[in-house]
Structures are given as structure tokens and as C-alpha cells.
Amino acid sequence: MQSLRAVPWVTFVVMAMVSLFSMGQGLSYPLLAAILARQGHGEAMIGLNAAMTPIGIMTLGLIVSPLTARVGARRWAILSALILGLTMLVIGMVQNIWLWFPLRFVLGVCVASQFVIAETWILMATPNAARGRVLGFYNFLTSAGFALGPSILAWVGTRDLTPFVLSACFATGVAVMVACVYHKLPRWKADRAASSPWSVLPLMLFLALATLMIGGLDQVILAFFAIFMQDRGMALNDALQLLSVIMASGAVFMLVYGWLIDVTPRRLLWLVTLTSATILPWGLLLLPAQSIWIWPISIALGCSLMPMFILCMVELGERFAGQSLLAANGVFSLGWGLGGIILPPVAGTGMQLFGSQALIWVLSALTGGMLLVALFRRIPVHRTTSTSAGG
Length: 391
Hints:
By secondary structure, this protein is mainly α.
């Protein structure tokens, strides 16, 4: 408890800021898809349009550190939030799919800016002894914000500008919150030498690969899990409920997982988490779809897969600081985007060629491969020091 009391209050303001931002994003993704479908565009075109956001996220991962070294992290956080709010208003007023392509790219850049900078602030402000619990709470709030977004959209509807104005208000609210605590936020020296993602990548190869895997598996499960369970003989509504259970259990377990990170050796936690994530999917394949055991196995799978990103973030905070930490967070953003683009087509092609069981092969191959790497990995102790005023 003493370590939690040492967490600066501004950290919780940043968490509230990101939760508000997450609600806006959870609202915008289904909103844009619903409008495009109503306009008569096919799934392929909707998917291509939606892909502009992760491309923007990946681009931000490459440029966020040199950009903030020049502009300042706090100033860019405010500016990117305002740009995002304005972009949402333009999208709502000019509902043309071809104009939406560059606009959704801008959304991706601004969305990633908020998360990368906020997570850097949280990692820098939080003491080592409480970092797991704080990040567990942060990720739980973020997941809750995303989950609330669709509920808000169901309330306000998709037929007028109201959801776009609401999303812009959320983004503006974030900018106002950053401005209010501007001088309390962590600062660091603008070190150009440490601003390239390639300068930190050799020090975080395992974490970068893990992030790519986690980001890809997140998209693979969202895209194909319900299809897999349907092919196994489960009704569509039950399969969708089971998918919701996986996501919700993982989000809630983040609170427990954060505590485990603070009291458990890193290697042991990696090995246990990756082992369970490798074995559990086979229960979904071997058991009948009507088995009652499918539900607890799905809960355990969600608890294994979703919180792993917290462990990556904690190690990142222990190893880097200042401009190097921001660059490392940019690598995370790049890895998450790459995983989301590469792995779903691989899983989908495998399922088309070899049947729905290929989903389990992909899940277990990825987590099993990371488990082998974790077995022989030497966990380095490295922390850069770049904590003087700036940013």
C-alpha cells in the first residue's frame, strides 16, 4: 500500500484522460462502419477504409519520438487531441468514403499519439514497486472506455452529427485536461540521439515481438473466434457471448495481473502466462462446443492473452526513461499495428485452406514460439537516464 501512496496524483488524471479518449474511439469505430454499410459499400471496401487507422498508428510509431523532441510531448498531446476532434467533425460533415481514407489516417496518427504519450507519462511517474498495479488499473479503465463507446452510440444513434460532435467533445475534453495539469506532467530532456525507434529496438527485441504477437492475436480473435465456434457447432449468439466473455474476463483480470507483476519474478510470470495461452486453445478444439467446460476455458484464455501487454509495459518502464522511453513506446505502437495487419490474413488463409481448426494452430504456434524464446531469454537490466526538463 505504501508504494501506491507514492504514485503522483497526476498519474490518475492521465488515466481519466485516456478513459475519456477511449470512449470516443469506442464510439467512432462502429459509427463509421455503420455509415459506410448504410451507404451501400461492401465489406471489402469498409475493411480497406478501416485499415487506414492502423496504418496511421504504425506511422506514428516511427515519428512520435523525433516529433515530440521538436514540438514537445505536452504540446503535441494537446494539439493531436484537437486535430482528432476537428477531423471527426469533418468526417461527419463530409461523408465521402474517398475523403475518409486520408482522414482516417490522420485519426490513426492522433489516436496513437494520445496513447503513446500518456503511457510514457504513466510509466515515468509511477514508482517501480507499484508499476504493475497502476498499469493494470490503467488498462482496465481503457478497456472499459472502449466498451462504453458502442453503448453510447446505441443511445445517440448514427443518423445525424450528434455522435461526431460527441466524439469531438471527448477529444477536446482530453486537450483541456492536459492543459489543466500541463506543469505537473513528467518532463524530460529532448534528446535527438535517443529519438529514433531503431536506437532502442536492439534493447527490446523480445518485447517488440511480444507486442506484435499480442496485437495480432487480439485482432485474430475478434475477427475469427465466433466463426470458429460456429463451425464447431455453437449457435452464433452463443459464440458472440463467448467472445464477449473472453474480452471481459481479460479486462477484469488486468487488475489482478498488475498485482502479480509487482510480486512475481518476471521470467516465471512470462513462462506461466505463455504456457497457459499455448495449452488452453486446444481445449476449445477438443471439447464439444456444447460442453459446459468451454466457458471456464474461454475465461482462462482471456486472462492469459489480454493482460500480457501490461507485462511488456512494466519491463519497458524499468528499462527506459525520457526520450528513449517515448521511442520505445513508439516501437510498441508500430509492433501492435504490424501484428494487426499481418496476422489476421495469415489466420484467415489458414482457416480457408485447412478448416477452422487452423485458428487453434495459429494461436498455439505464436504463443508457443514466444514461450520457447522466453525460456532462453536473458532479462537485461538497463535503464536510460533522460529525466531533465523538456518534453
